[in-house]
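A student in our group prepared the protein record below, which I am reviewing. Thanks in advance; the entry in question is below.
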Amino acid sequence: MTVLRSLPRPRGELSAAVIESLTRTPGSVVPDAVALDPYGEDLLLTLHTCYELHYQGFAGVDENWEWDPDLLRLRGHLESQLLTALHADVPGGDDVDAELDRLLEPTRDADGIAGFLAERGTPDRLREYFVHRSIYHHIEADPYAWVIPRLRGQVKASLVAVEFDEFGAGRGERVHARLFADLLSGAGLEPGYLHYFDTVPAPMLALVDMMTLFGLHRGLRGALIGHFATVEITSPPASRRLAALAHTLLPHPACAHFYAEHVEADAVHEQVMRRDVVAGLLAAEPGQAASIVFGIQATNLLEDRFADHVLTCWNEDRSSLRETLSAPVAPA
């Protein structure tokens, strides 16, 4: 039986007003859009709340809110603010090959979150990282499914082949979102869908909102492909390091297994995405080059912002979450 999560806790005046609206019947008054920090908690939480109506929804919220015209109008204003900020904060361009080549450039082992965990990592810090990623991995491949009907021929077939693996190749226990839930349980954390949503701060919300935004809009199909390619190309080396860290810091095999699965699967996906999906889309629609580049650059921008937030907090010996985690529970 599917158990829906409750509405999130507000993080500002707009999110509070939208959450209050969702407790009433569709067609009730929705607040007007206001100018907000596009990377701030209030805007990103409001967007995520609107987007979740297209995923699992919330307990006690009428499903007809999903297509409420006033809520969609508000969401559109917030999307415009986020897109404007993302375009302003990336260099742009249309050289897709150059962007893809940069993704393959090696990074130093000491760099980034994995580098910190390798040098000064603790089980609690790794659990904290898992909590951040949980709101991403619970919907890991879902937004990419929206682009399938917008593609044709080999591009569609190749993207579906990658998605087939993401969704467990026909086996429910191997769906990647399920594997991450198993990881959470193995780490002594709660595995429930979006259980830690109220705990995760804005930098990870921005990443999740971005991929949903790209997925929902046909006009951003190139950006979604760019984002998807970035994830698949950068995943194998990152997953290899995280698998080793999980094996060292947390004893349950599910913690390392999630990342080991990505090392194997995404090494193949990397080639399929670049050769068949990206190149195929460009052959069919050359005008998508700038959008693909935007998707790659926006993904890297938000991943860097997330890593900067986490590392700043850890270097100051404080949690990078909005609230302290409870003590881990023994895995089942």
About this structure: The chain is about 60% helix and 0% strand. Residues 52 and 170 are 25 Å apart (CA to CA). The first helix runs from residue 13 to 22. The radius of gyration is 19 Å.
